[in-house]
Write a structure and sequence with these properties.
By secondary structure, the protein is mainly alpha-helical. 75% of the residues lie in helices and 5% in strands. Strand 1 and strand 2 form a beta hairpin. The protein is extended.
Length: 478
């Protein structure tokens, strides 16, 4: 009876220890979280107060004449509607749209060439499942190229966007194009129409198109941005290609290890006990690991899930935590250089594109701070804005920064001194893009044999722990 009750007693003690955590630890943890959140809130308020002061101090010749931004708050008179239409091929489509009235939505859809079957205001419980559709780099690359081609062919902008809406097969993106057409027909510019789409389009693209509208060179900007997002997509594919094999091998190794510890090792343990074999230290260690995994696998899964969830939450919401993790990753030998090269390449390429299309330096820095997810570079950009407010050079903020390589810094200084900052930044972007690609290929060729060796060592140790006691059994039989 005692043997049968032993597992239940063990589980009871584990549950008891898990739920009866010391009250002091919980109190300290709660206080620490509140302190961090208060600090973040104060920093945010301070930052919001400081930014206008900084911009006021920027000399007029640096700020230039900035276009006034329209009020882009959501129109409160827009109401949600659900409609059913029939396409030219006879297929029925059910989707949603926002308009001022049912007749307006019906008229809009009819003007778009659809046979409108039904339009009705959405109920509160009517959930729209196509609210996503944020454009990725590969989508933007193709769409911008197409849009530029249509405009060059003499097709009006509204009709060009209509063509994009007709040819897309993704319902969420089709809805975004419909909203663009709706805003353009109301007389809004393309940049304003994009900015109203709830962050579906990148901030960089919206600002570049806004600048192009002021200069009257929309097609050139569309082509340049298409090349920019094509380059981004290529870099992303390189990273995925480099990490796919190691990740697959890692999961394979974990799966093999769990299978051997949970299923294979216990089979041999019974044989060793029946033959009274002498077990070496490596075998005892593997048996202990197997027993621990079988007895606590639920807690291990919960622990790993809890750790991943807490880590993801802190990384997403706590700036200080995210920055420290990014600093740690950027200081890892070899792998850290991949992050730095990629960030410097994206930063300089985007900066060059903004400068070459006439975006003012302060506006460029503000855009760069919004499109990067790396807090280290956001901090450098904030310092740059502060320096610009004091009338100092851009390069001063980058001097001595470990995250900004010396080569890039010297090219930045040269660009400032020669008045060719955009050109120099293009050269820096090309250089570090090449270094990034080369480093990824090197790591890819190096990590594959390392993962195979690691997998062989793991399996080999387990097999060795099984084979060694079998020699002792064989010796007793002889």
């Amino acid at each position: 009876m005692e043997i049968l009750l032993k597992p239940f007693i063990l589980v009871y003690h584990l549950v008891d220890k898990f739920f009866r955590l010391p009250q002091k630890i919980l109190t300290y943890a709660y206080s620490g979280v509140l302190a961090v959140l208060d600090k973040i809130s104060l920093n945010k308020e301070k930052k919001e107060e400081e930014i206008p002061d900084i911009l006021e101090e920027v000399p007029n010749e640096i700020k230039g004449l900035r276009p006034k931004k329209k009020n882009l708050e959501k129109d409160p008179t827009l109401l949600p509607y659900r409609y059913t239409i029939r396409l030219a091929n006879g297929k029925k489509v059910n989707s949603t749209f926002e308009g001022h009235s049912e007749n307006e939505v019906r008229e809009f859809l009819e003007n778009e060439g659809y046979e409108v079957l039904k339009v009705s205001q959405r109920k509160k419980y009517d959930i729209d499942l196509t609210t996503g559709g944020k454009f990725k780099a590969k989508d933007l690359s193709f769409s911008l190229t197409q849009l530029s081609t249509y405009i060059k062919a003499g097709i009006p902008l509204v009709d060009a966007v209509r063509i994009l809406e007709k040819q897309t097969t993704k319902p969420a993106q089709k809805k975004i194009y419909q909203k663009l057409v709706y805003e353009l027909l109301k007389g809004e510019s393309l940049s304003v129409a994009m900015e109203k789409q709830e962050k579906k389009f990148p901030k960089l693209l919206v600002n570049m198109i806004q600048t192009a509208e002021l200069t009257g060179d929309l097609t050139t900007v569309l082509d340049d941005m298409a090349d920019f997002y094509t380059s981004q997509e290529q870099t992303r594919k390189q990273m995925i290609s480099a990490m796919t094999y190691p990740v697959v091998v890692l999961f394979l190794a974990i799966g093999v290890l769990i299978f051997m510890l949970i299923y294979l090792v216990p089979q041999f343990v019974q044989m060793f006990e029946s033959q009274d074999a002498e077990l070496p230290g490596i075998t005892l260690f593997i048996i202990g690991a197997s027993d621990f995994l079988k007895a606590n696998y639920i807690w291990i899964i919960l622990g790993v899930g809890l750790f991943v969830g807490v880590f993801a939450y802190l990384y997403k919401n706590i700036i200080a935590f995210r920055m420290n993790i990014q600093k740690i990753l950027m200081h890892i030998p070899v792998f850290g250089n991949i992050i730095i090269y990629n960030e410097v390449s994206n930063f300089t390429k985007t900066f060059a594109s903004l400068l070459n299309h006439g975006v003012f330096i302060t506006d460029s820095m503000e855009i760069l701070s919004k499109i990067t997810n790396n807090e280290v570079y956001k901090q450098i950009i904030a310092k740059t804005l502060d320096n610009l407010g004091k009338g100092e050079s851009i390069s001063k903020a980058f001097k001595g920064e470990w995250a900004f390589p010396v080569v890039a810094y010297e090219m930045l200084v040269t660009g400032e001194n020669t008045g060719q900052l955009g050109l120099m930044m293009e050269k820096v972007a090309t250089h570090f893009q090449s270094l990034h690609k080369s480093l990824i290929n090197q790591i890819k060729s190096l990590i594959e044999p390392m993962m195979i060796i690691a997998l062989a060592v793991i399996v080999g140790v387990i097999l060795l722990s099984i084979i060694v006691p079998m020699f002792d059994i064989y010796g007793k039989i002889q």
